[in-house]
Design brief:
The complex is a heterodimer. Chain A is α+β, with helices and mostly antiparallel strands. Helix content of chain A is 40%, strand content 24%. Chain A is globular, with a radius of gyration of 15 Å. In chain A, 40% of the residues are buried. Chain B contains 4 helices and no strands. Classes of the chains: A alpha+beta, B mainly alpha.
Amino acid sequence: MGDLGNLLERLGRSELEFVVVGAYAAIIHGASVVTRDIDVCFRFTPENLYQFRNIVADLHPVHRMTPEKFPLEITDENVSRLQNLYLETDLGSIDCLSEIIGVGDYDAVSAGSIEVEFAFGFVRVLDIDALVATKSRLNRLQDKLVIPQLLAIKERRM
Amino acid sequence: MTGIPQNAREADGRRESAWEAAAALGIDMSLIESSLRATPDQRILWHDQALKTLLLFEQAARKRHG
């Protein structure tokens, strides 16, 4: 298992309910792309955010989008204001999202996901249709390149 | 306009499959085939190895060019 895989395993072994979305989900489905981060979606409740903080606490998580690279701090004061987290950890980057463009909030994301078995357990992963829906809404070359792969993979599985 | 079809598949009236469409875009479908034969664990392992190599190249390039 590589570093991002180890990060996924950590999350997968925890009690946190989450769905893998983005390019890493496409890779899990079989797409041939390289990404620098894992994107996950979960409900941004205080319980989940504290739980997530505990899962990555020893990985020195910092907010990678801020020039100062502030350490991740979840407090009673800020927990209700958080919507997305873009973090760098010792195992790589992870984006935590409360909703996904083209799909919706966690409930919609979860409804559009499938369970995938790994050696360490089961993880929910956004399904191909929902992945195509979200990537179609993002006007980035990297997203447009993965859509034909996802459609081909879906066709092969039918 | 000559009305000449862009490719033989259009000529025979058959709709291009998603697999063929991806191949026509230049995507190496042998990599997808290989990935589909692998387990999810293998797929993320291969990915993470590729990412590690990419990061090493980037690091070397930064050292070389400052």
